[in-house]
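Sample entry (476 residues):
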Amino acid sequence: MYTTAHISLANDQPHTRISLAPSPSRLFRMAEPSKVIHVRNVGHEISENDLLQLFQPFGVISKLVMLRAKNQALLQMQDIPSAISALQFYANVQPSIRGRNVYVQFSSHQELTTMEQNAQGRGDEPNRILLLTVHHMLYPITVEVLHQVFSPYGFVEKIVTFQKSAGFQALIQYQVRQSAVEARTSLQGRNIYDGCCQLDIQFSNLDELQVNYNNDRSRDFTNPNLPSEQKGRSSHQPGYSDAGGMYPANGATSAAFSQMANAAAIADAFGGGLPPGISGTNDRCTVLVSNLNSDSIDEDKLFNLFSLYGNIVRIKLLRNKPDHALVQLGDGFQAELAVHFLKGAMLFGKQLEVNFSKHPNITQGADTHEYMNSNLNRFNRNAAKNYRYCCSPTRMIHLSTLPQDITEEDIVSHLEEHGTITNSKLFEMNGKKQALVQFETEEQATEALVCKHASSLGGSIVRISFSQLQEIRENS
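Predicted structure, serialized as tokens:
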């Protein structure tokens, strides 16, 4: 059985979700069968464990190579029949990981050799200098952290870190080449912290690193007498690039690092990363919602919708602009989730515009509705679980806290005024009744949620959220 190792400084295991969205018309190109499967569109948010979970139902996985630079992966099953079973299944079911569709086909390789496995980097001749990129960087990575990770493999002479469009990068110079080879072999694809800060390591083509300052962004361990940069002055370390260009050596700001550290507290809810498009660095808590249906909307309905993404502090409908409202959430991360997932959503026949407001908060007044102390806020307890369920509006809603004697007919009757219900399922989990209800459109499901969340049904206050399931299955 294939196993993946982590340099784990944290204890919690990342939560992985794999959604399978049916797409019967989808065809894949049938090359000559091979036990090696080629996977494309593998974003940096997708981990080795995600791919393992996608293919393990079909047999034993013997090897896995992540081609990070190409957003691809090569995966070797134990035998050809297992690989055929996987590709036949995914010919009719679109494989999707963390909301991203991935595409699979037989590889031209019949076997993964050492050469292909080493091709995760640039495949350059081994060098004593390593170029590494850190993906899913949810915690600050400093020179000290890198030294702690890489020094067990040999004497580290110099480290230079810098920020590039590819993300946080660093150059690590060893005293001897063999140390760099061993470090790359051992650390490639592993995580500095459990579930995040994944290392993508290549050999550099540089001969020597030039370090001018000893600080948190660069260090010459052979010359401890180098000065640190002057306070308030940007570092002017020479840029480095294995492609011949210049990488600016400016690091991320301390403010961004601080926000990233805050986001890391809930990062395990997203499988060790953040949803595509979420930076985790926003500090604006108030959002402006426009193009509302002023005849149908009110503060409580907005609360029901926006509380899916964070705790609501207060809401204000703008009386001089009846189709506008301000919504203040508990922090900038929650506000960013709301903007990301609700922008363009349809509600009451209108397409919502959701943007960050220029106002840092909403001033309390007679025309504001206060929700700070509401027991209906979802993130006071089980915050990680609620973050995990954040998504854009879907056709499927999930109902919980239902009375034990509820029937499926009761639920349909409670919701059918909001649209055409195409499917429903009542089930029990951990001794508690829950339900899934699928509407014909996302807009209908959204209307049902904003109108019926926190409503009374059979003497119980019903909780409603969007479900990320595509279809109701018998084992849902």
